[in-house]
Amino acid sequence: MLSFEGKTVLITGAAGGIGAETARILSGLGANLALCDLKGCDDLADELRDVGADVVTAAFDIRDRAKAEAFIAAQPQLDAIVANAGFCPWDDWDDADWDDTFDRVVDINLKGVINVMRPAITGMIAQKHGKAVVVASVAGRMGGLRASPHYVSAKGGVISFTKWMAAKTAPHGVNVNAVAPGATATAMVDSSNIDPSSIPIGRMARADEIAQPVVFLCSDAASYMCGATLDVNGGVYMG
């Protein structure tokens, strides 16, 4: 049985979907939570506090490095971080405003991850322990089911960045890994028209089916994992 008693976990993109399910599971395992999202996550925080969780929240854009650093610095203890915030428009590279969309996607899905990981990892190295989990995507593994090229590029980049972070931090007692979900029934894929028959398991994932592997990587049970990407995609990609 995993336990997070006395541990604090920070989750970005926590208001819904995979982030919210991760928070719920961690809360049930005794974790203290630091939750952030673009527009805040007060409803989730109230839900978790009602069952006894210790929760702090913030609303900011992870593209804002200063705000990310300030929220992380405000945590008296940080044992794990889940970089979950993401953005996936479904346009193509010949659509209008492509350049602006590309910049936004990369800034959120790649640079935004770096913005939160840099201060979190620095603190974990200093304390000589910690877990960091990046929520990547099957899109970064093999192009996804319908993902647009900017999202594919950003998620491929974040998988490589995970490996770089893992090698840098492992000698200091910090484990950095990633989860690469396939199509998941969240608001992000509402407009994607993904055909479940293209998935060997025959359906999209539930958010909790992605959250469980994320929680595992945050735990002491993952103490010998370093730079791994767990493929949780219903069989779409078998690497």
TrEMBL record:
UniProt family annotation: Belongs to the short-chain dehydrogenases/reductases (SDR) family.
The keyword Oxidoreductase is assigned to this record: yes
Gene source species: Roseovarius gahaiensis
Entry annotated with the keyword Transmembrane: no
Pfam families named in the record: adh_short
Segments crossing the lipid bilayer: none
GO terms for biological process, alphabetical: fatty acid biosynthetic process
Keywords carried by this UniProt record: Oxidoreductase
GO molecular function, one term: oxidoreductase activity, acting on the CH-OH group of donors, NAD or NADP as acceptor
Stated name of the protein: SDR family oxidoreductase
